Amino acid sequence: MSEITLRQLEYFVAIADSGTLSGAATNCHVSQAAVSLALSDLERGLGVQLVIRRRAKGAAVTPAGRILAVRARRILSETLEFAAFGESLQGRLNGPMSVGCYSAYSSRVAPPLIQYFAEEHPAVSFDLVEGSSTDLQEALLSGRLDAVLILRGHVLPQVQFESVVEMRPGVLLPAGHRLAGQDAVSLADLQDESVILSAVRPADTFVLAMMQEVGVEPHVAWRSESTEAIRSMVGRGFGYAVLLSAWPGLVTQEGKALVFKPIAEDVPTNAFVLAYPRGTSLTEKHHILLDFCRSHFDPF
Question: Which domains does the chain possess?
Fold first, then answer.
């Protein structure tokens, strides 16, 4: 087997990401001929075809190529970590770090997190990506993200995690609701009322399963991917909502008052977690991120 270089892996990942050799060349600031030669050398060194070159339709990555792309991204990421190791020994973190955050919580997590890295670790090129838990974990496992902040109930089998903060689901009601004055609300007492659910999976299936577990068959009036839209609908009296955690402020954007009450039934708790690929170890950047999240995010 001939020598395989990091440059070959870099160009190959660029091809996989862009879908064309010309796009990879542009992204890597080299000629298309250089990308093509590196790909040929890599395929020859591995003894397997990684890309099907199609003049009119770009470059199609083969099944073997898709497997290699995942490994290559991790190798390149670890190489960047190693290159930054010298400065980290001097107490200065640097290099890129891309973190995914479950979109339902990004408005609470992103601002303090981005500000923290900008002020305390300015040499780190920190990027925060929003999305669904499933999409974020797929990006994590493909090597496009270094870690993701999601809910424990959403974690895939290929992923391991460290808990950031525990959370307990509750019921969101308009302030004038008949049960608003109770210390805790039974889901059974809401059986005949309409519920407004999150449309973001797997949050919706988690809530539905939880309600059915305590014997409640919900009447779903509406679904939304926006927590603020759900809060506004509850504030207008269109139904109640079951949220996986408390949400800051008990007034909607329209100025309507809300109450958030614990669920009287014994329901499973959840947690906000820092997730990373199973079988890998946390880097120093991960530990810095985890420590900040644990110290700054109160129970949701």
Answer: 6-74 (1.10.10.10), 84-165+272-296 (3.40.190.10), 169-268 (3.40.190.10)
What DSSP string runs through the chain?
-----HHHHHHHHHHHHHSSHHHHHHHHTS-HHHHHHHHHHHHHHHTS--EEEETTTEEEEPHHHHHHHHHHHHHHHHHHHHHTHHHHHTT---EEEEEEEEGGGHHHHHHHHHHHHHHH-TTEEEEEEEE-HHHHHHHHHTTS-SEEEEEGGG--TTEEEEEEEEE--EEEEETTSTTTTSSSB-GGGGTTSEEEEE-STTHHHHHHHHHHHTT---EEEEEES-HHHHHHHHHTTS-BEEESS--S-SB-TTS-BEEEEEBSS----EEEEEEEETT----HHHHHHHHHHHHH----
> Would you say the pTM of this structure is higher than 0.70?
no
- As averages over each run of 10 residues, the pLDDT of the chain (300 residues) reads 82 89 88 88 88 77 87 80 55 80 87 93 91 90 90 90 91 96 95 89 78 89 89 95 83 93 90 91 89 81
